[in-house]
Each structure stands twice: as C-alpha cells, then as structure tokens.
Design brief:
Its EC number is 2.7.11.1. By secondary structure, this protein is an alpha+beta fold. It folds into six domains: 99 residues, Phosphorylase Kinase, domain 1; 190 residues, Transferase(Phosphotransferase) domain 1 (Transferase(Phosphotransferase), domain 1, Orthogonal Bundle); 59 residues, Trypsin Inhibitor V, Chain A; 63 residues, Trypsin Inhibitor V, Chain A, CATH 3.30.10; 61 residues, Trypsin Inhibitor V, Chain A (2-Layer Sandwich), CATH 3.30.10.20; 60 residues, Trypsin Inhibitor V, Chain A (2-Layer Sandwich). Helix content is 33%, strand content 23%. It has a six-stranded antiparallel β-sheet with strand order 1-2-3-4-6-5, covered by helices on one side. Strand 10 and strand 11 form a beta hairpin. The longest helix is centred in the middle third of the chain and has 36 residues. It is elongated, with a radius of gyration of 45 Å.
C-alpha cells in the first residue's frame, strides 16, 4: 500500500489539470505506450478515464496527426460494448484521450483467476466483444489490438472493448512505440500483421479466436522464449484444437476456434458479424447439450487440403482425416489411417507371387462387403446428420414478428427476437433479417433469430445553444451526428466559446451523419478608444456614446485648458467593449479669485483696483446720478469669487 501511495505521489501527472479541464486524480494502469488515469472532467463534472501517451510520442508530428484522426473515428462508434471516447487533446506535447470510465477489471483478470472456462461461459464473454467489433467493422474501423487487457468488465458485469483506432495510430506512425506494441501483443497478432503489416476485419477475427482459445484453455496457443519465436509460430503453425488441452470441449467448438484462427485470412469469417453468427450457432448447440454435431462441425471446419495448398504445405498425406462430400457443398470429416496418402487404399503386405492371386480371391468378397458397409454407414450418417435432422429456413423478411412466428411454426420451427436494427427499406416493427438466413439449413424444431427493423435511423437535433463548443460536439457523438462548419461571431450577450446558433435547428429530425453547423461566440466586439484630451467635452461625450461607451464626467479648474474642454481621459487609448465606461475631467477654466470692495471709491480708483485684480470693468450711472463719480454699488459684490477676466459692473452716483 505504501509503494502504491509513493507511486501516486511521485507521478508527475497526478494532481495536474490537463488542457485546463481534466484534473488527474489517480493512476489506474500502465501499458507499453500509455498510462491510464482516473480524472475529473471539471467542465461537465464527471469521472473519466484519461489515457496519456508516454513521453516522446507527442513529439512525432505524423503520430499526432494519426492519433487525432483515429481518435475521431473511434469517437463516432456508438455501441454499448465499446468504451466511449469523449475527447482527445494535446497539453504541451502530452497527448491524451478522455474516455468512459469503467470501474471493474479486465478480461486478463478473469483468465488469470477462472480459466479454463466452460465453452458456454467463454462464448458468453466473447459475444459482447464481437458485438463491439461488428460495430467497428461496419464503420470501416479495424481494432488491430484485441487482447484481454483491452476488454473491460464493469462492476455490473458489462463487457466493453477499449482502444479502438489506437493501435493503428501507433503502427502507422513509424514511431519506435510500434515495436513496443508488437512485443506486448504478439500472442494475439494475425499472421498478416507479422509478415507485411496489413490488417482488415479478418485480422480482428483472428485475435478474437486466439482470445477464445485462451478462455477455453487458460493458455495461449503459441509460446516461445522470445516474441519473435511466438510471431514465427503464428505465421508457420496452425492453432491447435483446444480439446488437446481440455478433452471435454466438443468438436464443433474446436472447429469454431480453428476456423477463426486460420492462417490464410481468406479462410476466416469475413468480419466479426459473420463470426458472431457462427458463435451463436455453436452456443445453441451447447444449450442442447450435444457432445458432437458433425453437420455443424463440418460447416465450420476449414477443408484440410485447402489449408495445406494455401499455406504451401502438401505432402500428399492426411493426418487422421479425409474429406468426403456426399451432399451439396457440405463436408463430412471421417477418420482414416494416419500416414496413408489421401484417397489411396490401404496397401496390403508384400507376398510371394504364387500367393498373391489366392489372397485377392479370398479378400475380394470381404473387401466388397466392407466397402458396401462403409458406404451404407456413411450414407446413413449423411442422411441423418445432413437431411433427416434439418429443414430449410423460411423467408420471414418484411413480416411482423407474430406473423413470422406463425409462418415458422408451419415448418415446426420457433422464433426469438435476436436483435433490432435500423433500416431504410423495411418498415418499423417488421422482420429485416433472420439467423439462419432464408434458404439456409436449420435443425428441425430449431430456433430462428429475428432481427426486427426499428425503421429508418433518425435523430432529433439536441438543444446545443448556450453550451461550450466542445460540450456541444460531444453531445453529437452518441446520436451519430457530426460537426459541420464552425463560424465565429462577436456577441454582446453570449460569452466567448459558447454556441449562439445551430443549423439544422433544435429538434429537427435528421439522418445519421448529418453535419451540424455552429455559430460560436467570439465574445464582445472590441472597440478602439479615441483620445479627446484638450477637445470639447460636448463633442467628446456625443462621439463616445455613439460608439457604445458610457461616459463619466468630473470638473476642475485649469489655467491652461479652456472651460468646457477635456483636461484628461481614462482610458485614452486601447480597446474596450460596449457599455464600458470612459471617464473625463472637464475644465472649468482658471481658478476663481476674490472680488475687491470698491464701493465709495472714485470711479477712476475703482477701475484701477478691479483691473489690477484681473477683471474687466463696466461703468453704469445710477438713475439718480448726481455727478459725484463715486461707486454706489458693484456686481459681483465685494468678497464674492469670480473668474479672472470676467466683468465687474460698478454703479456710480
């Protein structure tokens, strides 16, 4: 416990916030090219799994581009068995994926603790893995790195596959991490990935087949002292039958594993969906408790001669089996002597010439009887296993499930709802497909799995206005919509980074893959502040208000700035936003001075005193002027304050 705490404390990412959003709480696991952390998405207040690429990967520009492209592709997958990808980012060279957090354990833990598993339990664990791969293969995505560590099992028992697209991003980058990937997952690599690096859906099928083998036996099919030896075995040796390690495994389960892991990819199921249908048939046989089902085994077995010819190995001998095709294309495999050339009769012991003819005469009838008996036995077995127990699946497509059930009953068959899927052609609620398909053979009294149409796949555009752009984009992924054009516009009301409008509009019904266009706020529009210092406040106020500013005004006396002009302005440059305030100090002119008392002074003395004080003088005679030239009154009066240069009116007698 102390070591774990020390490791967490010493981890440089624990406690750090990546991309200004994801607070790293604790390290969960560490692999060959990435470390997984539990983190908190502070923006959406949810726990996520943060997969952080190891140092150095972010320095490779090609890998970074591939990483982003593959992460986006994986994010488009919508399947309950796929670990959802929410986001990807680059925090100063630290590449990371934000994914669904799945508390629980991995399939590796199950294998370590419980394997070998029963065939039924193994197939039940494999089925959701194939469901996830089917969704990926339908979308044109190849996983490339199926292994127990990438299969997560939640505390509630849900099975989810992680790391879609990540292996492709690494292997295509030319980075040395590719070597680490090969070294870490060599036990599950398809031969073509080892020989030429190419991969398609059948490569994932191979890895899933290896996974099934390990679930059934608890061991990997190939081993070696070095990864290169294991890789060599994948290329040059067939995967052995699981029953060699666990004898109770039925032959049709052996055949299922060996078909999926055929070294020639053309002999494998074409993708996970086809493999899943084969798994369903085998699971049904297990439910019936059949120790063997030669017809099912024959359908799944890859013809031995074809394997040898395709692999370049054909020594002209079978190894305990020979192909016989009594009915249509079906193959029945029966035992023969080991070491005998294919199709050759057993060679009798060498005898002297005089004894050979009598021996032929004596053995001829016996050989004929044996051949006839064998033919009868084979014919009887072929009739029983190939005809008697089977009938043909009727065409139930486009029927309602109840009508399909009634139609199946006419042939002694049953139906069950297998799946639901969208269809542009088959109406809602009608059967759009069956397993087995129409015309295929099915065991009498067997079960036909129905896939029922959910009608055309349509989604309503969610309300995205007001969300941050990245949150709005994440909301599109579960409903299979994509981001279209992003136009940024200034807004005085919507905060920067938030969605102002979308097209198509909220609640519009659209098809999957529809592009949603966003108008995103750039925040308030910046406005350049003009400088009105020294100019008329009246003009300045009018101009600033027209630009959208509010104007503040204070006044003070100033000997240099004329009354009514701007002494100073805050701010007087740079940019502001609408409704921001510009404050101005407006001049009241020079400071006021006291008006001298000139009453009872002579007119000449009064004028001199006032002029010396900086005032102008206007003389007016009293209505009852006596000609004394003595000041009787003044305005403003003595002791009042007035601006220098202003006029003082004196009244004389």
């Amino acid at each position: 416990m102390t070591d774990d705490v020390d490791t967490q404390v010493s981890d440089r990412l624990v406690g750090r916030v990546l991309d200004g959003r994801y607070r790293v709480d604790a390290r969960v696991a560490k692999g060959g090219m990435a470390t997984v952390y539990r983190a908190l998405d502070t923006r959406l207040d949810r726990t996520v799994a943060l997969k952080v690429m190891h140092d150095g990967l972010g320095d490779d520009a090609q890998f970074a581009r591939r990483f982003v492209a593959e992460a986006r592709a994986a994010a488009r997958l919508s399947n309950p068995n796929v670990v959802a990808v929410f986001d990807q980012g680059d925090d100063n060279g630290t590449l990371f994926l934000a994914m669904e957090y799945v508390p629980g354990r991995t399939l590796r833990d199950v294998i370590r603790e419980q394997a070998p598993l029963s065939p039924a339990r193994a197939l039940d664990l494999l089925t959701p893995v194939l469901s996830a791969l089917s969704a990926a293969h339908d979308a044109g995505i190849v996983h490339r790195d199926i292994k127990p560590e990438n299969v997560l099992i939640s505390d509630k028992g849900a099975v989810k596959v992680a790391d879609f697209g990540l292996a492709r991003a690494v292997s295509a980058s030319g980075n040395t991490a590719t070597q680490g990937l090969l070294m870490g997952t060599v036990s599950y690599l398809a031969p073509e990935l080892v020989t030429d690096g190419s991969a398609d859906a059948r490569s994932d099928v191979y890895s899933a087949g290896i996974l099934l083998y390990e679930l059934l036996t608890g061991n990997k099919p190939h081993s070696g002292d070095t990864p290169i030896q294991v890789a060599y075995a994948h290329v040059h040796a067939d995967v052995p039958a699981p029953s060699l390690e666990v004898p109770t495994i039925p032959p049709y389960v052996d055949a299922l594993v060996q078909r999926a892991t055929a070294r020639d990819r053309d002999l494998r199921p074409t993708d996970a969906r086809v493999f899943s249908r084969q798994v369903h048939r085998v699971r049904s046989a297990l439910e019936e408790g059949l120790p063997d089902d030669p017809e099912l085994t024959g359908d799944l077995t890859v013809p031995i001669q074809q394997i040898r010819q395709d692999s370049g190995y054909d020594d002209g001998y079978t190894r305990g089996e020979v192909e016989i095709e009594p009915l249509r294309h079906d193959t029945i495999v029966v035992p023969v002597d080991r070491g005998r050339p294919t199709g050759a009769p057993a060679k009798p012991p060498t005898a002297p010439p005089h004894q050979q003819q009598p021996q032929r005469r004596s053995r001829g009838p016996i050989a004929l009887i044996v051949i006839l008996a064998a033919a009868i036995a084979i014919g009887t077995a072929a009739w029983y296993y190939g005809i008697h127990r089977y009938t043909t699946t009727p065409n139930l497509v486009s029927m309602a499930p109840a009508a399909a059930a009634a139609e199946a009953e006419k042939s002694g068959l049953h139906t069950s709802l297998d799946n639901q899927d969208y269809s542009e052609d088959v109406p809602l609620g009608a059967v759009m497909g069956t397993d087995p398909a129409a015309g295929d053979r099915i065991r009498k009294n067997g079960d036909i799995g129905l896939t029922v149409s959910k009608g055309p796949e349509r989604y309503r555009v969610p309300q995205l206005v007001g969300l941050q752009l990245d949150a709005a984009q994440q909301a599109l992924s579960p409903i299979k919509l994509i981001t279209g054009q992003i136009i940024e516009q200034y807004s005085e009301t919507v905060p920067q980074g938030r969605v102002m409008a979308i097209s198509p509009r909220f609640n519009t019904v659209v098809k999957p893959g529809t592009a949603i266009n966003f108008a995103v706020s750039k925040g308030k529009r910046p406005i350049t502040v003009p400088d009105w210092t020294g100019k008329s406040y009246h003009d300045a106020s009018k101009a600033l208000r027209k630009l959208g500013f509010t104007v503040g005004r204070t006044t003070q006396y100033d000997e240099k700035v004329a009354e009514g002009n701007v002494i100073s302005q805050t701010p007087n440059s740079g940019t502001l936003f609408a409704k921001d305030k510009v404050t101005m100090v407006v001049s009241l002119g020079p400071p006021l001075v006291d008006v001298p008392d000139v009453k009872r002074k002579s007119t000449a003395d009064a004028q001199k005193i006032l002029t010396d004080a900086g005032f102008k003088v206007t003389v007016q005679k009293a209505p009852f002027n006596l000609g004394l030239n003595i000041v009787a009154a003044q305005n403003p009066g003595a002791g009042k304050k007035a601006q220098p240069g202003s006029t003082i009116i004196i009244t004389v007698l």
